Each structure stands twice: as structure tokens, then as C-alpha cells.
Predict the 3D structure of the following.
Amino acid sequence: MGKKNTGKKVFVVILLIYLLLPIIGTLLYSIAGKWDSTVLPQTYTGQYYVQIFSNPAFISSLLRSAEISIISALISTAIILPCVFLGLMRYHSLINVFEVLAMIPFVMPGVVLSIGLIQLFSALPGNLSGTVFVLLGAYFVITLPYTYQTIRNSFRSVNAKNMVEAAEVLGCSESKAFVKVVLPNVMTGVVSSLLLNISILFGDFVLVNLLVGAGFETVQIFLYQALKDNGHVPSAVVTVYMALIFVICLLAFIVTSRPNRRARVKK
Amino acid sequence: MSYLTANNVVKNFKNLKALKGVDVDVEKGELVTLLGPSGCGKSTLLRIIAGLETLDSGDITINGKSIVGLPANKRNLGMVFQQYSLFPNMTVAENVAFGLKMKKVPDAEIKTKVEEMLSLVELSEKNKSYPDELSGGQQQRVAIARALVVQPDVLLLDEPLSALDAKIRLSLRTFIRDIQQKLKITTIFVTHDQEEAMSVSDRIFVMDAGVIVQSGKPQEMYQNPNSKFVAGFLGTFNFLKPEMLGLAAGSPQVLVRPEHIEILPDGGEGRGIFRGIVQNVFFLGNISRLKVLVGDTIVLIDTLNTESDNFAAGQNITIRIPDEKFIQFKD
């Protein structure tokens, strides 16, 4: 038993080192002044953070990333949530369609997807190609599996169909039952799906670069441009980006680990 | 005309004929049970009455008026589900008040009615608890209170005791019957448990494969089942070969209840008297069920447990199967 636990601990420590080493390296490099032939930097500086935070282009890119991620995640949730509800309540075949659709982004690489979208929108009237609207559409597709799976699981775990039926027999309409009974009980899943999507979209480079490019400079595009100068500024950008993702993950963790009344229902 | 009627109700799910022209009638204040094995259509019929499923043809009336076109939220029915279906985000009092709020009952009246109903189900002290803080039995009592508080025309109970353990099931079924009689509310109870059905019902409708195979008062049906299916479903029967009892070969099988077979402590000879060896003894509390080998036939016998009777496996006994207790069916 003791040997077993030691083995587990060693594995966890090795895993943590493997995962944290690049992060720590990036963090150190972002605050390193002089760092030539030593293990740790010889001098430290905050100048690269001052540099990026005093650069309006960086702040704008950060805000653009936040805007596009939050708006896309909200659109995705706003569309998928009622669709899953209707699929589970009435149109059961819709769920099968979603199951297939939710698989596609996993099997199709982002590059293939973006080239397909460029070709599609170039052929369509309205000249949407190269605009942020194409990106919103692409992000909807990319986040579909995560949004769908999380929301569907939330509905199933609270037995939404049964709750709606109980509410209907008590004189409630289906739409009112959705708002008053189902939504409060699946809110944890909905919020965690939102946060998950935001963190995924925040890190996107492939789609935004191919579909919109420099016309819509997100933090990832800014990072790509910064790589052309020196390594310290990109390290500072990556550190800020990682800190943001960490905060989002922490929020998601807090939301999902709140006491779930349904999970403790006694039989 | 009965208070609630289901006339020639037909329901198909793709290739499955769930209900094949079912007729049910319920008098006002009566508790009837739809009894049958899984998949016989009993819950489907209940859901059609509730408005949660549509019927393909037929009619449902309450107090002489058809309710077929009405959505579930306009039928004024109460329903209790197997899995309680309480709203986890609401307290007990909020759950019970939900139906009244939907009917836009004034707040003061809601408060009074909720208090009354919680008192009726003996859960007044739990009014601020959440469903996950209650036991299964308590949750089901809240579900009953929630269904009753809106003063429904008919109370529908869809296997309300199935998710509970045996002891709670027993007490809750008595509780349901007491409340039903106290409020004199017309009730339809769905179950696959024959003991449950016989103990709480005014009348039972036994269903099989989408049809009602027999209906009547519990005692009548127990004593006079009209088919092997009903006989087997309501209690236990011995299915005996006619030759064993001196009847002509080829005549229908003979059915005899285990409690109708007598054990003759002093032995005996004559018609219907057999010798057998006890194979096993099942202690069932107030009775024991003996599994007895008579010739090449296994016969089950129920006997009251008394201090003087102590049967054991391997024991030779003499039994009497009385002619007047035979039941024979052609099917």
C-alpha cells in the first residue's frame, strides 16, 4: 500500500514538473533582465510588462480577444440551450443530429475548417469574407461540441423532462417551466460551458489568423507579431494570457464545485 | 355516467401498439389501480389522461366533458411521479406552492393552503428544507402535497412507491389510502405490485399487452380471476395437471391457491388426498410456504405459523386439495 502511494506521488511530481516547467520558464524569461549562462536570471526587471501594458495595441488586442470570445460563447449557448431543451422534450431526432454535428469539429482540423469557410463566404453575396462575422460563425462551430455536451449532460443530470412534465401538470406552460424550473437547475452547467468556451476561444490563433488576419488583432495575433522582436515581450504576453486563463478556470472550478442540490438527492 | 372515462383509447409508438382500445371508468371519490407488468401500457394510459402523451383515437372525459384537446397545464389534475420530480432549487414550501402560484392564487391564501397541506402530510417542520435534505419517503410526501394542494379533479399516481424501500413503501401506501379517503379525491394509481394494488384499491384494472384483461374489486378478482394471466398476476397459484386430480386427460390445467391446500397431520385416504415430501420451507413471517414434491409435481402450500407446526425439508406429509377450490381455464 505504501509503495503504491509513493509511486503515485512520484508520478504526480514528475507530471507537475513537466507541466509547470515551461510556464515557470516563460514567467522567468518575462521578468529576466540579464540571463546568459546561469540556471536562474542574473537580474530581474518589470520593463516588458510596463512595455506591453503601455502599448494601446496590446490592450486593444486583449479586449478584442475577450469580446470575440465572450460574444461567441454567449451566442453558442443562446442557440444550443433551447435547441437541446426542445430536442430532449419534443424533437428527439434533433438530439441525434446534434450528436453527429458535435463530432465534426473534433475530426476536422481548424485549418481545413477555415479554408472551407473562406471558400464558402467568398462565393456568397454580401462580401462577408474577412469580416469578424465569419469568425463568429467559425467559433460557433468550434465550440459546438463543448457547449452541446456540457448542456446536454446538465439537462440529463437534473432529469429536465420529468421536471417540466411535473410543472406542466401543475398548470405551468412549457416555456415557463423552462425558465422557472429547468434553467435554475442547469445554470451551473451553462456557466461552466460558457467559461470553458471563453478559455478555448481566447487561445485561438489558427482561425482568427486565416479568416480575419491582421484586420482583427487579437491577443494571439499580437503575440505572433511580437515574436518577431525579442523573446521577452512575447513571454510577458503569454504570462498575462495564462494568468487570464487561470482566472477563468478558477471561476469555472468555483462554479462547478458549488454544492449541487440535485447530486445529493436521496433515494 | 362515471366521473372519469377512457373510451376505446388507442396509442401506438411507431411499430408498438401500446394501447389497443382501452376502456376505463372511475367513479367520483374512487381509487382505482391500473395493474400490470412492465410494458403493458398502464403508465402510457395515465400519461394520456394527464395530457403528457397524445392518443391516436378514443376519448377521455372528466365529469362528462372531453379533455382530449386540452394541454396538460389546463386539465386541473394532480400527478405524482415515481422519481418524485421535486424542483431541487425550491424549498419544500416553494415546491408545494408552485401549482398555486401558476394559478395566480393570492399570496396569503397560498401560505395558508401550503401550511394546511404540509400539516396533512406531516411535514410542517420541513417547510424550509430543500428536497435533497429529505428522505425518499419524505420527498414523495412533498410530491403528494404538491399534487393535492391545487385541489385537482383527479389525482394520478404513477408508481409512486417503486423507488422506496420496502418498509417506507408499506407505510406510504397506507398513508396514500388514508389521505385519499379523507379528501375523497378521485385517484388513479399505477403499479406493477399486486399486493400494493389489492391493499389500496376500490377497484383494479389488470392490463396486459395494451388491453384491460379484467377489472373488479380486489377480493372478487383474487377469488375469481378470469384467465391464467390474471390468476398468476394476483397472488400465487399451483398449476396442476388434470390427471393428478382424477380429471380426464386433455382437460384444462387446474389452478389452486397455496392457502387452499390443507395439511392433514393425521394422514388420510380418499379423493384429493396425496402424500408428498417437503422440499423446502420458506418462512414469510405469519405464514410459511412449503415446497412439496407430490409424485413428479411441485406443489406450493401456505400454512399459518404456529408453535406446534414445525415443518422441515425431507419431512413426509399428507395434503388435501379440495375440489371446490379448483379453477380451470380453457386458454
